[in-house]
Amino acid sequence: MQNHEIDFKLFGEEMQFVEIELDPQETVVAESGSFMMMEADVNMQTIFGDGSSQQGGIFGKLLSAGKRILTGESLFMTAFTNVGRDKKRVSFAAPYSGKIIPLNLSQLQGKVICQKDAFLCAAKGVTVGIEFQRKLGTGLFGGEGFIMQKLEGDGMAFVHAGGMVVQRQLAPGEVLKVDTGCIVAYTHSVDFDIEFIGGIKNTIFGGEGLFFATLRGPGTVWLQSLPISRLADRILRYGGGRRKEEGGPLGGLGNLLDGDGF
Question: Which of 24, 36, 127, 234 has the most CB atoms around its CB within 10 Å?
Fold first, then answer.
């Protein structure tokens, strides 16, 4: 294997964290802000990019970091290395309620494409790059823009999704139609395209947007039940200073009775 071999264990249900077990001199690279805890003799170091090009000189470092800027991530990541003589553990927490998905890239054709904000951590050597959408319609209406993240290598990587996670194995030619925000990741053999919903009533009154994604097999896809964008939209809707029931004829009275006043 080219990547470090790491062992792991998941803890929790709705608010998960992953515990990585490192042998001496093994390293795991994590997204900034995901660190939870670590044992003694684990060295933490801030690096440019994903760490896979750290031996390529300043140009390799800048190229790796530049790719992360295009996907909306920080210039820096954090590497955690076991500098002791025994096995050590370091843990990383999910940023919001949902599930952590372990991806063994050696069993997934060496490449997985995922949402820009899904990556959590990975064994050192896994490349966190960019994936440009090849079709114009997908880039314009796919909900994620032209650029997504790609994870390449033969080691373990971990991504995070909101709510429940469903893994589907698509047969050759099998098509799955999905809300664009519910896509977490898919193997590179899956064809990702955008389809117009159609119909005047669907377009005006459907409330589901004008497009959905079509995923055509063969390959594996991971879907989430609660995209962070949907959760944020609901929080803004109910937290904007105006109660939802205020539009009704008894809205003000209801707010008064439950102690909120007018």
Answer: 127
